[in-house]
Amino acid sequence: MGAQQNAEWYDEMCRKTANSRSEPPWCSPWHPIWEHVVKLVAVSGPSRIVELGCGPGAMAEMLHKKLPKVRYLGSDFSVVNIQIAQRRGLPKHYHFSVRDLVLEPVTINQPKCTVVVTVEFLEHIIQDLQVLDRLPIDTEVIFSLPDHDSEGHVRWFATAEEVDTRYRPLFSDLKVDTLEIGLRKYFIGHGHRSAPVTTVPPTTVPPTTLPQESAA
Ligand SMILES: C[S@@+](CC[C@H](N)C(=O)[O-])C[C@H]1O[C@@H](n2cnc3c(N)ncnc32)[C@H](O)[C@@H]1O
Predict the structure, then answer these.
(1) Who contacts 207 (Cβ-Cβ below 8 Å, separation ≥6)?
(2) What residue ranges line ligand 1, CB within 6 angstroms?
(3) Which CATH class is domain 7-214?
(4) Which residues of the chain fall short of a pLDDT of 50?
(5) Lower CB count within 10 Å: N or C terminus of the chain?
(6) How remote is the CA of residue 216 from the centroid of ligand 1, in Å?
(7) pLDDT per position as a tens digit, 124-176
């Protein structure tokens, strides 16, 4: 099993693969995951999108193509990834910020109009349940998880049922799809945050409020 890594580790990874990370999204092997998530977001028709662990902004580019008017906030703790995202030339209402999402949650002021998306991020942090638990009740969440290990993975899942078992307590209506890309499977979870759950321990770090212009 891999281990939780710090921002410098992701910066270094990103520097080594900067060329492929700057490419248009449809060149990436992850394109089918992003496409699937973007379709689900478009059906929901939110006025705001918050992306957790947005990396170099590839899915943001796809979201912008499909939903050009929606306000988007993408966060990631890797400065190098965020710099690549900012160079994609997206308009100002597609905003990127450097943020350690374990320590500094994004404030969501309008949960009923907001969709939170997070692709291949939750398996990189030990505190996945806490990060999801901090999202306001009723927020719609779409997330992807892998079926394989990697240097930065602290967990992975063999089946959609395993994903369902871990995350169902946080959602009122969780549905988990399975996407096959070559020999790998990715699980796409989709649901709304439900009432507080006592089994998830509260985070020890108090949430901070974003400046008004970047708050979603
Ligand atoms: C596998 S990449 C996925 C990137 C992006 N979601 C995508 O689909 O291209 C995982 C991302 O999680 C970010 N990450 C890991 N731990 C984080 C943390 N504590 N706070 C914010 N971002 C984090 C990494 O910097 C990296 O960009």
Answers:
(1) 104, 105, 107, 134
(2) 10, 30, 53-55, 58-59, 76-78, 81, 100-102, 119-121, 124-125
(3) alpha beta
(4) 211, 213-216
(5) N
(6) 19
(7) 999 999 999 999 999 999 999 999 999 999 999 999 999 999 999 999 999 99
pTM (2 decimals)? 0.91
- Tokens 């006592």 label which residue? 198
Check residue 19 and give its pLDDT.
Answer: 79
Residue nearest to atom 7 of ligand 1 (CA): 55
> How many whole angstroms separate alpha carbon 59 and alpha carbon 7?
20
Q: Which of 140, 96, 137 is nearest to 115 (CA)?
A: 140
Tokens of 122: 């939750």
- For the beta carbon of residue 152, count every other beta carbon within 10 angstroms: 16
CA-nearest residue for atom 4, ligand 1, is 55
Tokens of 51: 């992306």
Alpha carbon distance 39, 144 (integer Å):
14
